[in-house]
Amino acid sequence: MRRTGQSIPVTGLGCLCAAGGSVPELANALLTGQRRVAWREVRGQRYPMFQLEERAVPPGYFEGPECLRCGRLAIAAAREALRHAGLTPGTLRDRRVGVCLGTTVGSAMNNETFYRDFRANRRPDIEPIRQYLRANPASMVAQEFGLTGPCQTITNACSSGAAAIGHAAGWVRSGICDVVLAGGADMLCNVIHAGFLSLLITDTSPCRPFDRNRRGLTLGEGAGIVALESELSVRERQAQVQAWLCGYGNASDAYHISTPEPNGTGLRRAIDQALAEAGVGPQEIDFINAHGTGTPENDRVEGKLFPEMFPGVPFGSTKGFTGHTLGAAGGIEAVITIRCLQEKCIPANLGFQEPDPEFPGRPVTENTPVAGRWGLSDSIAFGGNNVALIFQESSQ
Amino acid sequence: MGGFGLGKQALLEALRRGGKPNGTVPVADASRPRQLPAYQVDIVPVGRFVSGAVSRRMNRFAKLAVLGAALALEDAGWEVPLRRNDIGLVLASGYGASKSTFDFLDSMIEGEGQYPSPTLFSNSVHSSAASHVSIVMELGGPCLTVSQFEMSPISALLTARDWLLEDRVEAVLFGAVDEICPVLGYCYDQFFGVSTSGPIEPFAWDKQTAVMGEGSAFLLLKRGREGHARYGYISEVTWTQSRSLTRPADRLLVLGADGHTCFARDYRRLSEQAQRCTAYTPLYGSLPGGQAFDVAIAALATEREVERRRICSVKCDAQGNCGVIECCFGQPH
Q1: Rounded Cα–Cα distance for residues A361 and A267 (Å)
Q2: Is A215 inside a domain boundary?
Q3: A255 and B135: CB-CB below 8 Å?
């Protein structure tokens, strides 16, 4: 199957999550091994959460309706990405700018208060519904910055943010956009937490990706957005390229509604597609930012596959810093992957202490220098969608 | 499939005789219980394509998707399951698996102190329907679920088009799915009151006449390289702003006007510019994914050579965005 393989410049990065309210703060946290864990009690049991520090939340975040928070996170990350890219309101007006974001919570109407009143026939006010209809994260970003290009909110569960970046590149490649703000945003949510508790895949300790004693994921919140831009626009603005998005793969397990296919065949296909598009072989990949949620099944898949496909290539999960941010994960981890390329270093896989004898893969346990030319980031979604992104360092 | 029935023949029959709501949704109000008209789907026929054991694990939203996808593949002469990795799946939904979301909330609320239902949670994720389709059809290719309210189909179709143009896949199974649930009925009642009794009057610009609809519409898309396409070609997929949209006068304009006055201004302007325009929403109801039904109807018109000129489907949202999908009989140059 022929692929076009045109690499797309990344000119801006924006991110906020538990590890930091900006990309520099995030990068510092990764470098210094700092993480901030909050705790929440549910039915007498304490559960860790990776929630934003209060000083990092956007203005009006807690004052406004809860359903708008994903959009506010996205706007904050988009603002940083635009500033980083040097894309001013004036330059945006002259360009066709699209928004492509992934989310899980941001598209769900799960207002508990409203629904309790509805169930009890208390005929609740309809304002929460009006708010929900205004809360689409991609639309909120578009409206905030006056963007009139295509808008897409991808709801692919945990691969949403990565898929959004891959698809956004297609918009630039096909010429329908000059710039696309792409990534993901998600917030901590009582309902979603209850859902993961019901699946018995949450840990009562902060997540331990790839560790023998891992018990599950730890939820997080945040947003990670990259500005993808056409080469023509980059040349016109003489913009600085942060990295190149060279490869994107998307493949399905077609196996189970919530458990990954144990042999990782879907993930392998996605990675192979991304490698083919980037025109590189596995031996050229310098490091892998793993999905690494800390669930037994997910980490087993990656722990088996990575050593097989990429022998000797260092890998690690950064969810020990950020938590599992669901639809935002792919976006945040794309930002992290690019920063790792720039720093030529990948952070330690926090939470890993004891190898799991069920698979040969061992993540890095300390900050590890890498050549920093090619980085791969993968995301594995609930329901079996797998996405792989390959970034190349920028020589600028 | 929709309130008109199941499959292509049912849609053709509805085009001949007209459409109307075929069911009702109760509005929870102890003081004044009432029913609102709705276009509803009978999903029992999903049993033709999946076993009872498999369908028991699916929610209604997923069954709508699986049945729609299966009917499209059957019409194409493809045997299910496909067992292919080179077919993409793009699913558009305005509200997602809303009923399952509320069912999960029910299990949370009712089971205070106990764990809520993990199955309901798994199925409440918007992408659950696409996951079920990929599992049943054994599709290992790229998969995407898009949720952008009224712009869901156009946004999803942009992706489907890109996948084909970039040779990522040999074909794309593109579909839109939306379902009715009691909360939606309550919202219609609260927002619109008695005006929701129907019928839909797409061109009564100052009247709120929308009637809830549900259903799914799927198309199997391929690259238009050679030979004759049975259902014609999609020659344009554009996301634009309603205020600046103009169309050549010779197009048959199919407006997504579905009786909601909040979208009427832009549809009215377009209808006044067009030589010929129509709206098919009275056949399937008001639902965010409705544009996919309009494209399916355009495809049927092409198959039957009823319309040899270009058919242009237009869907607008309340933010001034507009999705344009143009279909044509012969291969576009």
Answers
A1: 15
A2: yes
A3: yes
Q: Which of B29, B98, B143 sits opposite A250 (nearest CB)?
A: B143
Burial class (CB in 10 A: 0-12, 13-18, 19+), B117: buried
Is this complex scored with an ipTM above 0.85?
yes
- Give domain status of residue A361, yes or no: yes
Provide the CATH topology of domain B7-328.
Peroxisomal Thiolase; Chain A, domain 1 (3.40.47)
pLDDT of residue A1: 43
Tally of domains within chain A? 1
Residue A149 and residue A98 in contact, taking contact as beta carbons nearer than 8 Å: yes
| B178, two tokens | 């939306």
How many of the other CB atoms lie within 10 Å of CB of B244? Answer: 9
Nearest to A155 among B134, B147, B170 (CB): B147
> What tokens appear for B224 in the block?
């238009």
| A158 tagged catalytic | yes
Among A168, A380, A392, A359, CA closest to A270 = A380
Nearest to A251 among B28, B85, B130 (CB): B85
Average pLDDT over residues A148-166: 96
Structure tokens at B179: 């379902």
Can you read off the two tokens belonging to residue A65? Answer: 């309706």
Q: In this predicted model, what pLDDT tens digit does every residue of A313-352 receive, in sequence order?
A: 999 999 999 999 999 999 999 999 999 999 999 999 999 9
Pairwise CA distance, residues B140 & A382, whole Å: 15
pLDDT band at A4 (very low <50, low <70, confident <90, very high): low
Nearest residue to B11 (alpha-carbon basis) of B235, B280, B302: B280
| A89, burial (CB in 10 Å: exposed 0-12, middle 13-18, buried 19+) | exposed
Residue A11 in tokens: 């000119």
Q: Which residue has the tokens 């207002």?
A: A111
Residue A357 CA to residue A342 CA, distance in Å, equals: 33
Residue A193 lies in a domain: yes
Domain-located, residue A5? no
Tokens in use for A331? Answer: 């976006």
- Angle subtended by helix axes A137-145 and A69-85, to nearest 10: 50
CB A208 within 8 A of CB A294: yes
Residue pairs between chains A and B whose CB atoms are closer than 8 Å: 205
DSSP state of B6: S
Q: Which two tokens stand for residue B114?
A: 């106990």
Known catalytic membership, residue A291: yes
Does A64 contact chain B (CB < 8 Å)?
A: no
Query: Measured between alpha carbons, how far is B131 from A184 in angstroms, rounded to an integer?
Result: 20
Q: Does A253 touch chain B (CB under 8 A)?
A: yes
Rounded to whole angstroms, the Cα distance separating A184 from A66 reads 17
A332 is in which domain, residue-wise? 12-393
Select from A320, A326, A340 the least CA-distant residue to A390: A340
What ranges do the domains of chain B cover? 7-328
Query: How many other β-carbons are positioned within 10 Å of the β-carbon of residue A360?
Result: 13
CATH number at residue A278: 3.40.47.10
Q: Quick one: which of A280, A375, A265, A274 has its CA closest to A3?
A: A274
pLDDT in tens, B35-48: 899 999 988 888 88
Least Cα separation, residue B80 to chain A (angstroms): 14
pLDDT band at A396 (very low <50, low <70, confident <90, very high): low
User: How far is the C-alpha of B295 from the C-alpha of B93, rounded, in Å?
Assistant: 15
Tokens read off for B50: 């999946």
- Amino acid in position B93: S
Residues in a beta bridge with A390 = A247, A376
A100, A152 Cβ separation under 8 angstroms:
yes
The answer to whether the Cβ–Cβ distance between B96 and A155 falls below 8 Å is yes
Q: Which chain A residues are Cβ-neighbours of B108 within 8 angstroms?
A: 112, 191, 194
Distance CA B194, CA B217 (A): 29
